[in-house]
What does this fold into?
Amino acid sequence: MGIVTMKRLTLLAMRADKEKIFNALAKTRSVELKRSADVEACTRVDVLSAREAYADKINRVEESLNYVAEAVTGYNQLYKHNKDVEEVKLPNGSMARPLAEVDFDYFINFDKNVNTIEEQLQSLADLREQINQNNAQITVYNAELDRLKLIANLAHPTSWYCNTDNATVQLMQVNAAQLDKLKTFAGNYELVNLEVLDVADDTALLAVVAHRTETDFFEQAAVYGLVKCGVTCDVLPRVRIEDARRRLDGLQKKNEELIKSVVGYAAATADWKVYVDYLGLCDAKLSAEGDLTNTDLTFVMEAYYPAEAESKVVNALDVVTANYVLSCFDIGEGEFAPTLVKSSKIVKPFESITNMYSPPAYHEVDPNPVMSVFYFIIFGFMVADIGYGLLLLIAGIAATFVIKQQTGIKTMLQLFGMCGLSAIVVGALFGSIFCYPVYNGIIPAPDAYPMVMMILSLMLGIVHICAGIGCRMAVKIKHKRYLSAWLTDFPWIITFVSLIFAIFNMAMDMAAYDPWANLRLPDVVGQAALYVCLASLAVGVICAGLDSKGILGKVKSSFGSVYGIINYFSDIMSYIRVFGLMLSSALVGSVINDIASMVMNGGGLGYVFAVIVLIVAHVFNLAMGVLSVYIHNGRLQYVEFFGKFYEGEGALFTPFGSGTKYTLVKDGQSLKNN
It folds into this structure.
């Protein structure tokens, strides 16, 4: 268990066998290809334009998938009340198996289906273009109907309103709110007549007749917003409107038929998703081809693989060709290699916590076994409730058995399920079930004796930090820096452990919890622990410069370690958040119980509503609490724990051919990091 030993290979083979070798290595799920070293007289293939073409194909298929999905959603929404129309469902997989499972041989030979899929995609593109053209026409006709709305009830074409020999006749429009003022103003003109023809959307349509001697009316009336009607129609408006509506209905019916054709491709999207992943593999092969060095007949490939999979890789090559030369090398000290972490089933879910921060570098010590223990314990103290822990445990067990594929959701629920056990244990120490004190536990309720839980949180922090320093010792011992490990780091562990004993009685006095009075240590133990603490602190400060060069550097490091004491105590104070999260969740849960109790006092339906309040509110409190715990617990690992020894910045081992998005290719055991 831990970081798997990796090896590096160099393969010399015939270019004619390249495709078969790529497929064989992809099938093993045990090889990560790398860029081969430059070799004199060898060339590289420029694959940039070919890769761009694959990227365009992938984008086109993805867009088609999204388009069909949107069409299906709209179609089902449109016909949801029509019992004669069956709902269309996309083949999106199930919760248990969200990814489509395909056989490797079927997947690698998927090119047999490419022509059919490309024809489907082209047909969909044609349908989409027709729909877009129709939508453009629909927009035009809707705009025309909106434009003609003002003259919809006009009894004549707009051209009918024209000047005579003695009068100016105009179709005019004005805001309906100004109509009365305009009429009053027109009353000042004897030879001007206004006729309101229609009012639409607060705009009045007027026929205005003015004798030639009073045409200044139009200029003067402009102050009221009177303007010439901007809509013209050379035929009867209602005829034009009826024609536009008829054409609009025809286009909409055509679109409905076209959408039905689009929705008909719903079943085909399952193959389209496999096609996306197949194109991704083809692109990965092109990328790998660009990393090869070539002669006219041969190529050189380099790759990393787990040492335990060497026979698997060699056997895969032997199956497809005998014309190759394979050289295998151990990874040297300081040489880069991708990281493959192999953990027990218990530790495996906790790897996601570390990977969110940064995967371990290949030559580092795997932090997951130690980190997982403290994440488990701290999670339990932050949640600290039997009921909440049981819900998390049930969710984790359900995810393990219901979700058959190892997805991110499954890993997360398994993590919470394991940590639910810790919450149950700590909740039992408090005697709390759904924030209700069932019995007097070993640890008092945090709201009654806050100092007790605060002290426990700080002591837990000291132990956690000591574990981080211990891991730093392990790293130094791995690199044979024994003196620095035992004289620079180990004294700090002794300092903090002895500090706990030195201030133990003081902490008991601050806690003021009578049932723990018998836990007080003899005074001589506290005094001895204080001397040990000061002595080990002195050793740690004096020896802090062991790793520095020169006398001045050693002195500077020693003085710097004195300032480091402040950083250590600042880190310890960060663990008050353990107490804070526990207290906040407990108080919210207690308020929920009080509200439910008041509702229950109403009797009758009060009991029903009380149960609803308890279920909904406690689930919400648990969800919010777990979210906060997940973040803050991770923060304690990243800053206070990892900050003592962990560098990270590793690159996870990613086997060639494993980067699928929609499909799970089943053939053999994958060594890819989950």
In short: The CA atoms of residues 94 and 144 lie 47 Å apart. The first strand starts at residue 2 and ends at 3. The radius of gyration is 39 Å. The chain is about 55% helix and 10% strand.
